[in-house]
Amino acid sequence: MSTSRKTILMLIGVLVLWALNILVLSQFFDAPESVSSFGDSFGCVSALFSGLAFVGLIVAILLQMEELKLQRKELSLTRDELEGQKKQLSLQNDTLKTQAFENMFFQLLQFQINLTESIDSVKPNNRGFVVTYKGKDCFVEFINKVRSEYSLNALKNLDTKKRLKTAVIKFKDMFDKELSHYLKSLYQIFKFLDEANIQKQQQYIDLLKAMLSNQEIIILLYLHVSDIISDELKMMLVKYQVYDDIIPGSSIDNNHEKLLKDIAV
Description:
mainly alpha; 2 domains; rod-shaped
């Protein structure tokens, strides 16, 4: 029930009681015998104004309660609106953060691609012509170089790991300039992803891993076995299971499979 309706009902109630008072006095009591008695008969008027004053007090209290109720509702709406703005701002911040992360990630990825494409290797063929390998094709030639050195060490009394390490070290000395920047750049990308506090981190890790060819991973594994790459890069390669993507049986020697499995543990 609204405040105005309550007020009208209380006023009607006071007027009805006042009218009943007049009616009772006139019907059941004799006319006043003196002036003072006549004045006392107007006590009902005083009762009317007292009743109206009481009604006014009640109305004031009801109005104040209604106002407080409206204020509480307005504060609640304001609080909900501020909470909605806070959530929207948080979503915007997350979007901006993701955009900044992706911009940096794809710049690093493009730099790595360009760096890989800039690698070249020159080799004379059987007809005396010089063949130039570029980009990812170089890693096929790198594996051939390691295989060649590994075969030359077959006559030496070395275990599998030492034989492989000797071959890889000689290969690395031949292509140190080409591989040095490649390995440093690759580590920086893994480090960037590892330190990033962002959702779906594995999605970006998988994208980076998908960029690496099988030959690249084999070379990374052989460098790992030979303790040539940094401990930091070793940790990243193992942590994100890069070696799991190598094609089974694609290593130079089947005996290397056990060495590679030990590294990836």
